[in-house]
Amino acid sequence: MKAVIQIVQSANLSVDGKLISEIGKGFVIYLGVKKGDTTAAADYIVKKVSAMRIFEDENGKTNLSLKDVGGEILLVSQFTLYANTEHGNRPDFLSAERPEKANELYEYAVKGFQNNGYVVKKGVFGEHMVINQVNDGPFTIVLEKCVDNE
């Protein structure tokens, strides 16, 4: 499982021109599910992201967590995080989990963040989404929990 975490001042997501979700200060997290991923990988991502101290404190040090700043999460499922670009110019997505299982683990992660006290807004699984975000920093972290290190 792979998460791309970006600090934002705000973000919104729409499908077919209709606003679906929006957040203020917080994280936009793009979540990719790889074949073989389990709830243990999702638990790892949720625990690690929840504990990350990557917001600046009053001294300019990255020392505050999302909870410390009262931030929200926009969690977006993104199978393209598992694009294989080694051969040719068109990526394949053979490493990405099949949609039913990926959506199950995505929803599991949503619940995990909610159970940790976060406001979580979602994308629409499997749909073409338009996401507008105002990145802050920019500050981006890529976090991955490989199946073989569970």
Q: Could you characterize the architecture of this molecule?
A:
This protein has 150 residues and is an alpha/beta fold. The chain has one domain: D-tyrosyl-tRNA(Tyr) deacylase (D-tyrosyl-trna(Tyr) Deacylase, Chain: A, 3-Layer(bba) Sandwich), CATH 3.50.80. The protein is built from two helices and eight strands; from the N terminus they run βββαβββαββ. Strands 1, 2, 3, 6, 7 and 8 form a six-stranded mixed β-sheet that branches. A two-stranded antiparallel sheet has the order 4-5. Strand 1 and strand 2 form a beta hairpin. It is globular and about 45 Å long.
Major β-sheet annotation = 6 strands, mixed
How many H/I helices? 2
* DSSP, total strands: 8
The N- and C-terminal alpha carbons lie at a distance of 11 Å
**Helix proportion of residues, in percent?**
10-25%
CATH classification, class level: Alpha Beta
How many separate structural domains? 1
Q: Spans of 5+ residues with little confidence (pLDDT < 50)?
A: none
Task: Report Rg.
Answer: 15 Å
Mean pLDDT: 95
Based on helices, strands and strand pairing, what is the structural class? alpha/beta
SSE string: EEEHEEEHEE
**CATH structural architecture:** 3-Layer(bba) Sandwich
Classified in CATH, the superfamily is D-tyrosyl-tRNA(Tyr) deacylase
CATH topology: D-tyrosyl-trna(Tyr) Deacylase, Chain: A
Strand content: 35-45%
Q: What is the 3D shape? A: globular
